[in-house]
Amino acid sequence: MNLILFGPPAAGKGTQAKRLTAERGYVQLSTGDMLRAARKSGSELGQKVAAIMDSGSLVSDEIVIALIEDALAQNKTAPGFIFDGFPRTVAQAEALDAMLARHGKQIDRVVQLEVDSQQLLDRVAKRFAEEGRADDNPESYKVRLNAYLAQTAPLIPYYEQKNKLRGVDGMAGIEDVATSIAAAIDAR
């Protein structure tokens, strides 16, 4: 099972991905984590990633796809993968589909955490007030949310058209969301 958890920042994707890795043995492929690991590795690809990141530029889709392809090769016995932070655009989704197809794989399910943007903003503001997390301040969250709405939300019709998208109530409690995600994954 190859899965994308889809939803705006602070929707709970990370929380649910951790549950799925623990409960089902899926491997979570976080592009941010993979980029940091590649950079630290000192490999040829890692040196390329470091140079791009140090210049302040965005790492190309081709490099991210290469990192994902490498992670798939390193985890051949995994029962599935959760894609986290990728794809973010239709072009990235098409590139991911093409790479997976070369390996006889595909995205099996896209689970959209359906959430209320204002309630998420309130959640982020509360977390920021209680924990002081710099990445959770309401102003930076609004920028991330707007980027998601502009760039990533167009993936919804892309995956709907492929009949892979399943929506779950992302505003429910953590256990209820997990149960809904399990049902969406297991539905045929």
TrEMBL record:
The keyword Ribosomal protein does not apply. Its EC number is 2.7.4.3. It is an enzyme of class 2 (transferase). AMP binds at residues 31, 36, 57-59, 85-88, 92, 133, 144. Pathway: Purine metabolism; AMP biosynthesis via salvage pathway; AMP from ADP: step 1/1. It catalyses: AMP + ATP = 2 ADP. Keywords: ATP-binding, Cytoplasm, Kinase, Nucleotide biosynthesis, Nucleotide-binding, Transferase. ATP binds at residues 10-15, 127, 172. GO terms for cellular component: cytoplasm. Transmembrane segments: none annotated. GO terms for molecular function: AMP kinase activity; ATP binding. Residues 30-59 are annotated as: NMP. It comes from the Bacteria. The keyword Lyase does not apply. It is found in: Cytoplasm. GO terms for biological process: AMP salvage. Consists of three domains, a large central CORE domain and two small peripheral domains, NMPbind and LID, which undergo movements during catalysis. The LID domain closes over the site of phosphoryl transfer upon ATP binding. Assembling and dissambling the active center during each catalytic cycle provides an effective means to prevent ATP hydrolysis. Catalyzes the reversible transfer of the terminal phosphate group between ATP and AMP. Plays an important role in cellular energy homeostasis and in adenine nucleotide metabolism. Belongs to the adenylate kinase family. Monomer. This is Adenylate kinase. It comes from Candidatus Viadribacter manganicus.
